[in-house]
Design a protein that fits this description.
Helices cover 39% and strands 12% of the residues. It has 370 residues and is of the alpha/beta class.
C-alpha cells in the first residue's frame, strides 16, 4: 500500500507540472502541502482593500479580523436579501463557475449570490459527463482558466486534484475562488460553517467572552477524505475563537495526521472518540459528514464503513438540548430524515447562510461590499 501511495505522489506531481487533469485515489493518505506551496497566510484582513482582486484558495488566508469583517458583511447580505431581495452593486460584473466535479449547493449558491447582487454568470460543466468544456478535447486547466477570464471578472473553480486551485491562480490574471480541490480544501464551505456556528450560538459565546465556556465541536464521519472538515479545522485554528474539537470516525477514516499537527502547532485542543454517544456528551455542535463513496478503491471497502454512524432520534435524545446539528450536504444515510423536524437541525439554515457568505466574498473581492 505504501508503494501505491508513493507511486501516486510521483504521478500526481508529474501531472501538476504537465498541467494534466488527473485524480489520485490515495490522496486522502497524503499531506496536500507536498504538492504545492501553502497559500500566503494572513492576507485577508479587516482592511477591505486586502480582499480586492485577491484569490481565495485556503482558509489559512484569513486573519481573525478578516473573519470578523466577512461575518459582518455576510449578516448585512442576509438583511439585504430578507428586506429587498438584493441590489445591483455587481451589475455588469460576470462570474464564471467551472466545475470538474459534481455540485449542487456550492455551484448554485455562488450563482444565486452573484445574481442577487445584480451580476451575471457563465457556467462550465467540465466533469466527465459535461458538455460545455473543451477539456474533452484535451484543453488544459490553465488554458481553460485563461480563456474564461477573457470574459469574466472572477472565477469559482472546483477540481478533483489537490492543489489545482493554487496552480490555476498562479497563471490567472483575475481572482480565483477555490470551490474544492479534491480532498484538499473547501474554504468557502468552512467560512459558511463557522459563520453558522457564530450565528447560531452567538458571537459572545464563540469569541470566549468572560463567563462563557469554550465551544465543543464534534466532527463525525469521513474525516480522512472530507475537505470541508480539513478547511474548518484550519479556520478554527486561526480564528482566535474559543473552540475545542472532537474527532469521531472509523479508524480507516481518521483525521489526517497533518491536520492534527496543524492543530497542535496552534495549541487547539482536540480529542478522538469513536463512540458517537460519548462524542456528543456536552457538545455544542455536531458536524456530520458523508462517507465519500467516490474516494474508495473498492465497493467492499466503502460498504464496510458507510453506515458507521447514523444520527437519528435515539442519538438526538441523548444529545444536549442546545446542541446544533450541521452537515455540508449531500447526505446519504448519516442523518435520518426524522431529525429534520428537530429545531436543533441547522443544516438547511447552514445552506442558506452559504449564499450570504458567498455574496459577501464576491462583493469584497470585487470591491463592492458597501
Amino acid at each position: 500500500r505504501r508503494g501505491r501511495i508513493v507511486e501516486s505522489i510521483h504521478y500526481f506531481i508529474f501531472a501538476l507540472e504537465q498541467d494534466i487533469l488527473v485524480d489520485c485515489p490515495q490522496a486522502g493518505d497524503i499531506d496536500p502541502r507536498i504538492f504545492l506551496d501553502v497559500p500566503v497566510m494572513n492576507t485577508l484582513t479587516s482592511d477591505k482593500s486586502s480582499w480586492q482582486r485577491t484569490h481565495l484558495l485556503s482558509a489559512a488566508q484569513l486573519t481573525p479580523d478578516g473573519l470578523k469583517l466577512l461575518f459582518e458583511v455576510s449578516s448585512s447580505m442576509r438583511k439585504l436579501v430578507k428586506g429587498e431581495g438584493g441590489d445591483d452593486r455587481l451589475k455588469r460584473k460576470v462570474l464564471a463557475t467551472i466545475f470538474y466535479e459534481a455540485s449542487t449547493r456550492t455551484c448554485c449558491s455562488f450563482q444565486a449570490a452573484m445574481k442577487r447582487l445584480g451580476g451575471e454568470v457563465i457556467h462550465v460543466d467540465a466533469g466527465s459527463g459535461g458538455n460545455s468544456s473543451a477539456g474533452k478535447k484535451g484543453e488544459t486547466l490553465t488554458d481553460t482558466i485563461n480563456c474564461l477570464e477573457c470574459y469574466v471578472d472572477v472565477t469559482v473553480l472546483r477540481h478533483p486534484v489537490v492543489g489545482s486551485a493554487k496552480k490555476a491562480a498562479s497563471k490567472a490574471a483575475k481572482p480565483i475562488v477555490n470551490a474544492g480541490d479534491g480532498v484538499g480544501e473547501h474554504p468557502t464551505q468552512a467560512l459558511l460553517d463557522l459563520y453558522t456556528i457564530w450565528d447560531e450560538l452567538g458571537s459572545e459565546r464563540v469569541n470566549g467572552s468572560p463567563g462563557t465556556k469554550p465551544i465543543t465541536v464534534v466532527l463525525v464521519g469521513d474525516l480522512k477524505h472530507g475537505r470541508t472538515v480539513h478547511s474548518l479545522c484550519k479556520l478554527i485554528a486561526r480564528s482566535g475563537m474559543e473552540i475545542r474539537l472532537r474527532f469521531c470516525s472509523p479508524e480507516v477514516l481518521a483525521m489526517p495526521d497533518y491536520i492534527k499537527v496543524y492543530m497542535n502547532e496552534r495549541n487547539i485542543l482536540f480529542q478522538e472518540e469513536s463512540n458517537l454517544n460519548k462524542a456528543v456528551d456536552g457538545a455544542d455542535v455536531l458536524y456530520v459528514t458523508r462517507v465519500q463513496k467516490e474516494r474508495f478503491d473498492s465497493i467492499q471497502d466503502y460498504n464496510a464503513v458507510k453506515d458507521s454512524y447514523i444520527v437519528n432520534t435515539e442519538v438526538m435524545n441523548k444529545a444536549p438540548n442546545n446542541m446544533i446539528v450541521m452537515h455540508p450536504l449531500p447526505r446519504v444515510n448519516e442523518i435520518h430524515p426524522e431529525v429534520d423536524s428537530d429545531p436543533r437541525a441547522a443544516y438547511f439554515r447552514q445552506m442558506e447562510n452559504g449564499m450570504y457568505v458567498r455574496m459577501a466574498i464576491l462583493s469584497l473581492i470585487l470591491g463592492k461590499s458597501q
